[in-house]
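Q: Two folds, back to back.
A: First:
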Amino acid sequence: MPARQMAISTARYSFDSNVIINPWNRQYPRDVFPGFWRDIEELIENGLAICAEEVRREIEHKDDDINHWLTDRAHMIVPFDRGIEEAYIEVINKFRAYAKRTQARNQADPVVIALAMSRNLVVVTEEKREPGSASPKIPDVCDHFGVVCLSIVEMMRKEDWSY
């Protein structure tokens, strides 16, 4: 089978934790979709896909293959900085429900958005829009701030990936 051409991407992505966890565990397991993971890793190696430190924290709670995979790609982790902090404050001030979250798995959401806002990135998440929800979803918050937000499949289409 001939090697497929990679699309040249000018976009950079801020990955939500579910972009790593869900494909790994459910949608695109490594043993069945090795090409998907090669493409994700190529985005990472080319500096086109990054994630906030808080995403790493959500994933590191388990000593499993996902955690090891992410640890091997530590260069994609972006520590909280002044630009992210300023955008984070803007997100929290507008969407107060984010400030009240106590579950570890949801702590990264506003930071994923803030990272995208501070670096002009596209957010990639598997969350679905729920306008008016008491618990804001990443795509709704992105829409409010004019941040492009894609699902994994939408990102795959943008990158011209097919399997």
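A: Second:
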Amino acid sequence: MAYIDPIYDRTMADIIQKTFKGRFNITDWERIVNNTSFARELVFSLRGVPIPELITMSTPTRTDKPTAADINDLVQNIITVQTAAQVAAANAYTLKVDYEDGPDKRGPDYQIVNAWEKVIDLIVKYHEMVKVVRRPICGVGAAGAGMTRQWMFRTKRIVLGRVPICGFAVCGSGLLRQNMFRR
């Protein structure tokens, strides 16, 4: 499963002019379902956050339309991933799961569908960025008089840049009693 570029820039002009973005069709449905599954797997693999299984979605055909229950399941899957991902930009969007069947009931419009795809895109982009950024490998931080007696200060070598030492900070009299200072 690969991530498919979302479409979240639909406008009223697209609907009036009947462009490919102005109609919600099977391709859009499959893209949203696929991208939601991709986002779930990405969040799980990078963060290790247990995410509940997504509701299994059936692909609609040209002859049948998704029901309100199908749309609610689709949105519930997005909300499940959104809640587990905890991406601030994605949490700014409030998605609703209250669609009902009937001719007098209102369904999702283009702005709501844009929000669905934008939430998924924000989650994926954030986690793709986190995957690329490597965190520095940290050691044990030391401070005090014992630091000048460490090996790295006894040799005559040129240090081109200071690399921050972070991790477990130690200070006080316990610092001098550690094995690394008994050499």
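Q: And?
A: The chain has two domains: 12-132, 140-181.
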